[in-house]
Amino acid sequence: MVEWLIEPLTYGFVVRGLIAGMLASISCAMLSTFVVWRGMAFAGDAMAHAILPGIVLAYILGISYFAGALGASVIAVVGIGLISRRGKLREDTAIGVMFAGLFALGILMMSKVAAFQDLNHILFGNILGVNTTDLTIMSVVAGIVVLATALFYKELLVTSFDPAHSAAIGLSPELIRYGLLSAVALTTVMAVQTVGIVLVLALLVTPAAAASLVSRRLSRIITLSIVFSVAATIAGFYGSYYLDFASGPSIVIVLTLIFIICWMSQFFKNWLLKFAF
Question: Is 90 left (phi over 0), alpha (psi -120 to 50) or beta?
């Protein structure tokens, strides 16, 4: 059993991949609760797709994919802010416009300058392809996201549950929301390497969705989200290594199974309570 656990860790690229997966899972889980409770799942999905042109441009220039994705995410956040400014258009409309436009641009660029196989790992993840530079960037981004979430926890809490009260006490719900959207963008950029553009939404939504079935306390939901996300990353990682499955889908499948287990436990708990009374 011990040898089974240790064997993958004898390879440097495997260790880097596992560390990268842990960084992505912790960062996504920290934000997952607020993404779910504030109804920002669409924003997370849109951000994951909007970074595609930046990744393709990075491929063309031969620079880090993270740099290109980060640039595209900044454009997306700024664009959403400008389009929805002063309430002329709803924010979800602005997100939809940026999501569709940037993703279409990315597909167009990819069809002209790169074969699908060249960027296949970006679409579906390649946790074992993380290099030292990528890992360094991911560590910095993860540190920023975790630190920002911890520092502004009270502000996020108040604006998530009572925007009117937060405005009355001098907070800016709009500013906090765009700060959270920026954090989601950073986390999405970081998670692309592990699970890919197509599946990154699962890391941003499923952990908190599962935890919300077990508890209603925000602090406990965040803790459970991190535990579920890390457990799924480790299990998916070993499944990918030993069973020769794709890493991203493996992680997401384990997360989905955790959600189903949580849902079933609550279903049977409610059923038993109803039967008892």
Answer: beta
CB atoms near residue 111 (< 10 Å):
11
Tokens of 184: 């989601």
- Residue 215's φ and ψ, nearest 5 degrees, are -140, 160
Query: Is the pLDDT at 144 greater than 80, yes or no?
Result: yes
Task: Collect contacts of 253-262 with beta carbons under 8 A, ≥24 apart.
Answer: 255/202, 255/203, 255/206, 255/207, 255/210, 255/228, 255/229, 256/202, 256/206, 258/206, 258/210, 258/228, 258/231, 258/232, 259/206, 259/209, 259/210, 259/213, 262/210, 262/211, 262/213, 262/214
Single-letter amino acid code for the residue at 37? W
Closest by alpha carbon to 189, among 97, 18, 181?
181
- Where do the domains of the chain lie, and which CATH numbers do they carry? 2-199 (1.10.3470.10)
State the Cα–Cα distance between residues 91 and 183, nearest whole angstrom. 17
Amino acid at 206: T
Q: What is the pTM of this model?
A: 0.82
pLDDT at 120: 64
Contact, 215 vs 37, CB < 8 A? Answer: no
What is the identity of the amino acid at 165? H
- What's the DSSP call for residue 88? S
Q: Out of 44-58, 60-74, 109-123, pick the least confident.
A: 109-123
pLDDT digits (tens, 9 = 90+) for 62-72: 877 777 888 88
Q: Give residue 210's pLDDT.
A: 92
